[in-house]
Specification:
Helices cover 57% and strands 3% of the residues. Helix 4 (65-81) packs across helix 5 and helix 6 (129-142) crosses helix 7 (166-187). The protein is mainly alpha-helical.
Length: 188
């Protein structure tokens, strides 16, 4: 029986062998072989998207507002480099239509590269995110939040219902962090 560390090392070793075997299985004629290089592999759209995602910071369920602001520094720098003012610079000002258009264009360029990804538990890319949202809603209902449901996208949580019930909104916002922690703890 292989322990967790041994299994991980075994998988890494096997993963390293696969590319070597794939590269050495040519027809024997050097002119017919095509060798993948880092430059050619990195130029695919999927590889570029995953490389960009790798640079983006990811929030945690317990990320503080101060930590989130620190995560926004590269994003805001990018927005400024694209000739727009980030939202943090708008305090007390009403932006003009042209300023809003500049911000929208900058967001389109900068967000996929630098805007923080949501916590993994809430990320639509996580196949278990819908289960997480459903379990958090069940927890909130169990704690007395009357109007709460999973949002239309299956990942977000909607508080207040059509009634826009302030009690459900306030209580839900107060209890959400505790329910998220409970759900995570129950999954371990």
């Amino acid at each position: 029986m292989v322990g967790k560390r041994g299994a991980g090392r075994l998988l890494v070793a096997l993963a390293m062998l696969v590319p070597v075997q794939a590269c050495s299985s040519g027809s024997g004629q050097d002119g017919d072989r095509q060798v993948a290089t880092l430059a050619s592999a990195g130029s695919t759209p999927a590889a570029s998207a995953s490389a960009a995602a790798a640079k983006r910071p990811r929030e945690r369920l317990d990320t503080t507002p101060e930590e989130f602001e620190a995560m926004l520094v590269p994003f805001n720098k990018c927005v400024r480099e694209h000739g727009a003012k980030p939202k943090e610079d708008w305090r007390g000002q009403v932006p003009s239509k042209s300023e809003i258009q500049k911000l929208e264009a900058a967001n389109k360029a900068c967000e996929p590269l630098y805007y923080p990804l949501p916590p993994w538990e809430k990320d639509p890319a996580n196949p278990e995110a819908k289960d997480f949202a459903r379990d958090v809603v069940a927890c909130l209902k169990g704690k007395g939040v009357k109007y709460v449901e999973v949002g239309e996208n299956g990942v977000d949580i909607s508080l207040g219902g059509e009634q826009n019930d302030r009690g459900s909104i306030t209580k839900g916002m107060d209890l959400m962090p505790a329910c998220e922690r409970e759900v995570v703890a129950n999954r371990k």
